[in-house]
Amino acid sequence: MLVTDRLLGLTIINIRIALATDKELLKEVTKELWQTVKKLRPELGKDPRLQLVLKALITIGDLPNQVEAAIVVGVCAEMEEDDPPNEHKEDLSKGKQEPSSEVTNGRRVVRRSSANG
């Protein structure tokens, strides 16, 4: 009986250590995803980035507890300072966008958004 209790106690300790390691790994992966999304999609605000990172965590990870993943992503988002306003965000908030133009191969290419056209 004592041996069984001791083994059970050790098993519980091992499970707790594994869960603690998984939490740390989850935090590390979340931070990496957060920075990657910020780098690849700088126009995204904090909330859309949060949703994208959470969706990625749930998709690529085998997470039995999605609420815990959401909490970790929320903590990561709170650690991040509020993003300064981006030029792209300001243009969208004005409502009217000027057509963008590029010069390619000596030709001027003008692109208009569907809202203006």
Characterization of this structure:
By secondary structure, the chain is mainly alpha-helical. The chain has a domain at 2-82. It has helices at 2-40, 46-60, 66-79, 87-94; strands at residues 100-104, 107-111. It has a two-stranded antiparallel sheet with strand order 1-2. The longest helix has 39 residues, at 2-40. The model is unreliable at 1-5 and 87-94 (pLDDT under 50).
Radius of gyration: 23 Å
Mean pLDDT: 66
The structural class is mainly alpha
Number of H/I helices: 4
* Helix content estimate: 55-70%
Q: List SSEs in N-to-C order.
A: HHHHEE
Assembly state here? single chain
Q: Which sheet architecture does the biggest sheet show? A: 2 strands, antiparallel
Distance between the termini: 80 Å
Strand content: 5-15%
Strand order across the largest sheet? 1-2
Work out the number of β strands.
2
Morphology: elongated
Low-confidence stretches: 1-5, 87-94
Organism: Prochlorococcus marinus (strain MIT 9211)
Protein name: TIGR03894 family protein
Region (Disordered): 78-117
Biased composition (Basic and acidic residues): 85-99
Question: How are the SSEs ordered, and which strands pair?
Answer:
Elements (H helix, E strand, L loop, with lengths): L1 H39 L5 H15 L5 H14 L7 H8 L5 E5 L2 E5 L6
Antiparallel strand pairs: 1-2
